[in-house]
Design goal:
7 strands, alpha/beta, binds S-adenosylmethionine, 15% strand, 7-stranded mixed β-sheet, 343 residues, Rossmann fold
């Protein structure tokens, strides 16, 4: 979008949705290639203090308007946002995700010195320990991406035939089927039906963020019913720390329209209400992963632009530091849970 329309749109967005959303849209609408280092620095900078800045940063739009605006955004079908985000180009994602697995979810950097490949291996082993898969067990992944965890489980159990993955990305489904021969279905895990007591284990890694507040109890009930007695649901996701809708949360609508996870405390209550026993909870840090993806993307910028064009490249240049900032401001928390269905 050209100036002055871009500036006018930014003023309008600030008035309606607040400053964080307006800033993200302003960057994404750039008619020129963004300078990644400048964008990173801009988003790391502490905004000026003072009553006017603080008002636009924390209190505008007012709380009741934020609730109404978010509710109207949630009327969109989040499937459109998924397609827009994931069906971009598999080759593009290969440029910045780890070369070993192609995980598009938070890794573990215990020392901070690991490569993204090492960090994703540590995370994969951590989650493997939580799932504890055995040959012959029926295991379902909700939101399987490019199949990284399915590969890790299959390599451990030697039993790929017992695995099923669901995704809402056609590109991912055909990639995983063609490359690894896994059973992957293009299926919405929120609205879809499940067979009763069909699985020993269900897990989700970075997909639960798409479950909205109104859907939470219903999906948990379906997962509970599809698990065999004694089965478990392993869930790795991030969620806002409180029920208060902050102006910062609107910025996420630029990248995932129609998705907004309920707060972490309300999720915790919902698990117990669904009948699950919580047997594990750990907290992890998304920031080093976001930085590693950003660095890989920037290192491969020419190829990235040739694959997806400048507009999409710019979007990711804004997305990674914007998300880094969201976690650094402690607006959301990344957690792993094990939820057991009693015998
Ligand atoms: C951030 S990616 C994570 C992929 C993978 N688990 C990983 O760790 O790399 C989120 C995944 O969730 C899937 N997804 C999101 N909402 C979904 C839904 N309602 N039904 C099925 N898949 C969904 C997307 O298609 C994508 O595969």
């Amino acid at each position: 979008m050209r100036a002055p329309f871009r500036q006018l749109a930014a003023i309008w967005d600030t008035l309606i949705y607040g400053a964080p959303y307006a800033l993200m849209q302003y960057l994404v609408r750039s008619p020129r290639l963004l300078d990644p280092e400048k964008v990173w620095k801009l988003l790391m900078r502490q905004p000026p203090a003072g009553p006017v800045f603080n008002f636009f940063r924390f209190h505008h739009p007012p709380a009741f308007a934020r609730r109404l605006l978010l509710a109207s955004r949630m009327r969109q079908d989040h499937r459109l946002g998924i397609a827009e985000h994931y069906d971009v180009s598999n080759d593009f994602y290969e440029l910045f995700l780890d070369k070993k697995f192609m995980f598009y979810s938070c890794a573990d950097f215990p020392t901070g010195k690991e490569t993204i490949e090492e960090a994703q291996t540590i995370k994969a082993n951590f989650i493997l320990g939580l799932i504890d898969p055995k040959p012959g067990e029926k295991i379902l992944e909700l939101g399987c991406g490019w199949g990284p965890m399915m590969r890790h489980i299959a390599a451990t159990t030697g039993d790929p035939g017992s695995l099923t993955g669901y995704t809402l990305s056609t590109e991912q489904a055909s990639y995983v089927q063609a490359k690894f021969g896994f059973n992957v279905e293009f299926k919405n895990f929120i609205t879809g039906d499940y067979q009763p007591e069909a699985f020993d284990k269900v897990y989700a890694i970075g997909a639960w963020e798409h479950v909205r507040a109104d859907d939470l109890d219903g999906v948990l009930k379906k997962i509970y019913q599809t698990l065999k007695p004694g089965g478990r649901f392993v869930n790795h996701f991030f969620a806002p720390l409180t029920d208060t809708i902050t102006p910062g949360m609107f910025a996420a609508q630029v990248f995932f329209p129609g998705s907004m996870p309920p707060s972490h405390p309300s999720q915790f209550k919902a698990y117990e209400k669904a009948g699950f026993r919580v047997t594990h909870r750990s907290i992890h840090d998304y920031r080093p992963t976001l930085r590693a993806w950003f660095d890989n993307l920037v290192a491969n910028r020419e190829r990235a632009i040739s694959l997806v064009g400048m507009k999409v490249f710019n979007k990711y240049v804004a997305f990674f530091p914007g998300s880094w900032r969201y976690f650094d401001d402690a607006q959301a928390i990344l957690v792993r849970y094990v939820l057991e269905k009693p015998f």
